[in-house]
Amino acid sequence: MTQDELKQAVARAAIDIITPKLAKDSVIGVGTGSTANHFIDMLADLKARFDGAVASSEATAERLKKHGIPVYDLNSVSSLEFYIDGADEANDHLELIKGGGAALTREKIVAAVAKTFICIADESKRVDLLGAFPLPVEVIPMARSHVARQIVKLGGDPVYREGVVTDNGNVILDVHNLTINNAIELERDLNQVVGVVTNGLFAHRPADILLLGTQNGVETVD
Ligand code: 5RP
């Protein structure tokens, strides 16, 4: 199977998990990226069976709306049963690196609200040690140089993602060459740098279920 077919397979597996749990008043959190897009396209077939969705990016909101799925502001929703999203890296503790699509902050917010976070990814995203994928950090624009200097002190090599402005009007620094032995600690330390909005480590709130698309079928890690 191609990488895209593996992404489709995990999106289908997530649909299979949530379908029996859907109710007329269910609102679902939906992530961003090519794997999440497959999930959205499959979710459209079920739209009569749930109320709507909360989107983790403007791109996802647009795709949901195109399918006729109502999109709610997170502030108008009291709970989310599920959040379904992809990842750039995932380890066996279900800690993730996310933000390749620059949507990390809204993704982290929606994941924080959801009762169950189902991460869907093809097998290329599975790692023993997080950090080969450069860690995205969303930064308030005026703090970019300050944050970059602090990241160097923490042992990383920050690279400004040229031409990218997040949905929140901020910029992204991609941090190379980090050895992430303790993802919870690094997530906290980076978030304490003034000017950082958040970073792409999902360790304090890891996924609850990881669906990995492999050549031998979809593997569930939980
Ligand atoms: C976007 C993300 C995505 O989930 C991540 O980049 C994976 O994307 P894809 O499903 O296209 O491989 O974190 O900010």
Q: Please give the share of residues in helix.
A: 25-40%
What multimeric state do the chains show? Answer: single chain
- How confident is the prediction overall: mean pLDDT? 97
Uncertain runs: none
Radius of gyration: 17 Å
Model description:
By secondary structure, the chain is α/β, with parallel strands linked by helices. Helix content is 29%, strand content 27%. It has six helices and 13 strands. Strands 2-1-3-6-12-13 form a six-stranded mixed sheet. The protein has a four-stranded antiparallel sheet with strand order 8-9-7-10. Strand 4 (89-90) and strand 5 form a beta hairpin. Helix 1 (3-18) crosses helix 2. The longest helix is centred in the N-terminal third of the chain and has 16 residues, at 3-18. It is globular, with a radius of gyration of 17 Å. 48% of the residues are buried. Bound molecules: ribulose-5-phosphate (5RP). The site of ribulose-5-phosphate (5RP) has 18 residues, from helix 2 and helix 4.
Task: List descriptors.
222 residues; 6-stranded mixed sheet; binds ribulose-5-phosphate
Question: In short, what is this structure?
Answer:
The active site is at 107 (proton acceptor). The chain has 222 residues and is α/β, with parallel strands linked by helices. It has helices at 3-18, 34-43, 58-66, 104-113, 144-153, 183-191; strands spanning 27-30, 52-55, 80-85, 89-90, 96-97, 114-122, 135-139, 157-160, 171-176, 196-199, 201-202, 209-214, 217-221.
Write the layout of secondary structure elements.
Elements: H1 3-18, E1 27-30, H2 34-43, E2 52-55, H3 58-66, E3 80-85, E4 89-90, E5 96-97, H4 104-113, E6 114-122, E7 135-139, H5 144-153, E8 157-160, E9 171-176, H6 183-191, E10 196-199, E11 201-202, E12 209-214, E13 217-221
Parallel strand pairs: 1-2, 1-3, 3-6, 6-12
Antiparallel strand pairs: 4-5, 5-11, 7-9, 7-10, 8-9, 12-13
The structure holds ribulose-5-phosphate.
EC number: 5.3.1.6
GO molecular function: ribose-5-phosphate isomerase activity
Protein name: Ribose-5-phosphate isomerase A
